[in-house]
Amino acid sequence: MEDREDEGADGVPSRSDLKLIEQALRQDWPIPPRVKRDILQTLVNLVSGEDDTGGNGLPIPPRTRIAAIRAIAQFGGLVLKQQALDLMRRKFEGKKEDSLADLVGKAEALAEHRERTREADLPAGEVP
Length: 128
Description:
Layout: H1 4-7, H2 15-26, H3 33-48, H4 62-96, H5 100-121
Helix pairs in contact: 2-4, 3-4
């Protein structure tokens, strides 16, 4: 008897294909964004049950849906990790280099502080 889950049906990736997709996402293989979007759309279609048959009239096995859910979860976790790394990078870069507007603002605040300090140190009636 053939194992339909491993060979894949028309238009439906097999469980072994889904494991490869999960591995590609986990190991950050260079996948073009368009291809990545198509893969994720296929996985979402499998999970959502929009097409309960794989195009050939046979139902999609639950194990295949579970494999698709795992691949989506793997991708979602990687997206969150990348967002955290991007946030840390932005914070680090922000501390390392200030923009020109930030530097001008700091210089103006420092000049204003020095002006107030000078005025407070002068005896009454003297012009700075």
